[in-house]
């Protein structure tokens, strides 16, 4: 039985959209990667109709441009012209995008885009919003070269009566405001944009419309302009514009949480830290060491009231469990030295002495050097509990790492504790061995010179 042209075209539509996979049940469908089998299926489907129709050209064209095959897209366009067929405006939009990924200089790419626009006019087609947004989307990757063409494109679309969408301005902001280096020469563009948009209500016109408010706020942050940020916020609250702040679920980056922690530090609101850590776990940042170290550092930097120290110690214990979980997943686990120091200090200050002493074992296990401040806090704890045995253990640890503070710790033990003659001799031996190690190290350095 001969398959009808309508069925053939419908099959081609499905192949080019879903690829060679079954349609995904997930809401956020991701098209499959380009595959040789899929290309073969599309080609066979086209061959069965003996001669490609305009529809088949256009659908296949969009497939190859979607998969970044610009040369193949241009060949298809040539074949379409040779068959005296015409492209629609959606096909031209795809070809503009394909032209932008060609391995050419920015100026050549721009000239190719202009040539395509001339062909749109020659075929008596009218460019639409997506045509201009596609151009701007491509120009944002042209860096400094793209700025003048972008402004020309914006003026042209307004001249022919096409109202820009939020995505239009999103692309321009991305081009003119790089996150780390907003230039003075480009700083007026967003002010012009906001003066034009203030008070307007928008409806969805482009898939990237929801990116505008994010990029606008980033530009405000880069410019350090609070008044402008409030202007952007005012636009967001105009009509139903807040629908564009998607996605529905916002998961902050770990650096955003670090910035929040630093702001809490400035505002002297460190009691919020345990809640920030709890939220961080919900956001999937359990194994972000930079975030965990920032939290631990802020909690351990100063002494606090007893109730807050207990809360901080609970938080530190939870963070400690994540490092232990990380150990189990890694073949060569490694604890950061800072984290070990901070957690031990927090346990000591909260009266969780046994857990703090267990932390010292981790220093030996992971070959990390404890800080002098930590060893002194352990010595204070040993003095508070009147435990010379614990104090001597601190000296032993300092001696094992050949730390210069070993001699000072020994003097503290002699002065603050009632120790036996045997313990005094043991301390003397530890101090002597540490001195010998230091001398050997100095000799090695001298010989090296």
TrEMBL record:
The keyword Transcription regulation does not apply. One of its GO terms (cellular component) is ribosome. Residues 428-449 are annotated as: Disordered. Keywords: Ribonucleoprotein, Ribosomal protein, RNA-binding, rRNA-binding, Translation regulation. It holds the Pfam family PPR_3. It comes from the Eukaryota. One of its GO terms (biological process) is mitochondrial translation. Transmembrane segments: none annotated. GO terms for molecular function: ribosomal small subunit binding; rRNA binding. Residues 439-449 have a biased composition (Acidic residues). InterPro entries: PPR_rpt, PTCD3, TPR-like_helical_dom_sf. Belongs to the mitochondrion-specific ribosomal protein mS39 family. This is Small ribosomal subunit protein mS39. It comes from Hipposideros armiger (Great Himalayan leaf-nosed bat).
């Amino acid at each position: 039985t001969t398959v009808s042209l309508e069925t053939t075209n419908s099959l081609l539509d499905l192949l080019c959209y879903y690829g060679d996979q079954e349609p995904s049940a997930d809401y956020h469908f991701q098209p499959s990667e380009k595959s040789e089998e899929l290309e073969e299926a599309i080609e066979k489907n086209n061959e069965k109709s003996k001669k490609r129709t305009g529809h088949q050209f256009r659908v296949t064209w969009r497939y190859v441009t979607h998969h970044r095959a610009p040369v193949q897209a241009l060949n298809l366009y040539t074949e379409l012209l040779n068959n005296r067929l015409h492209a629609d405006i959606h096909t031209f939009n795809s070809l503009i995008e394909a032209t932008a990924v060609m391995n050419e200089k920015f100026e050549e790419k721009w000239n190719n885009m202009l040539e395509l626009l001339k062909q749109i006019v020659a075929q008596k087609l009218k460019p639409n919003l997506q045509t201009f947004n596609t151009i701007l989307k491509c120009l944002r990757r042209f860096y400094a070269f793209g700025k003048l063409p972008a402004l020309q494109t914006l003026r042209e679309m307004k001249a022919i009566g096409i109202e820009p969408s939020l995505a239009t301005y999103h692309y321009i902001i991305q081009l003119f405001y790089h996150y780390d280096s907003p230039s003075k020469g480009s700083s007026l563009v967003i002010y012009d944009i906001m003066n034009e948009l203030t008070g307007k209500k928008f409806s969805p016109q482009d898939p990237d419309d929801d990116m505008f408010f994010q990029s606008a706020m980033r530009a405000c942050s880069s410019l350090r302009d609070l008044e402008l940020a409030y202007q952007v916020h005012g636009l967001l609250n105009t009509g139903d514009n807040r629908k564009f702040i998607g996605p529905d679920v916002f998961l902050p980056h770990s650096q955003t949480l670090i910035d929040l922690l630093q702001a809490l530090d400035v505002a002297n609101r460190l009691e919020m830290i345990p809640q920030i850590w709890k939220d961080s776990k919900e956001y999937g940042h359990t194994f972000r060491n930079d975030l965990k170290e920032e939290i631990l550092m802020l909690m351990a930097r100063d002494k606090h009231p007893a109730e807050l120290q207990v809360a901080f110690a609970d938080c530190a214990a939870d963070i400690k469990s994540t490092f232990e979980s990380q150990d189990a997943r890694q073949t060569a686990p490694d604890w950061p030295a800072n984290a070990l120091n901070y957690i031990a200090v927090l346990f000591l200050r909260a009266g969780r002495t046994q857990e703090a002493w267990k932390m010292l074992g981790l220093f030996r296990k992971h070959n990390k050097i404890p800080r002098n401040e930590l060893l002194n806090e352990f010595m204070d704890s040993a003095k508070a509990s009147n435990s010379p045995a614990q104090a001597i253990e601190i000296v032993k640890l300092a001696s094992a790492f050949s730390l210069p503070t070993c001699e000072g710790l020994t003097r503290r033990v002699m002065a603050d504790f009632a120790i036996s003659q045997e313990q005094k001799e043991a301390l003397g031996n530890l101090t002597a061995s540490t001195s010998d190690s230091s001398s050997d190290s100095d000799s090695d350095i001298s010989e090296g010179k």
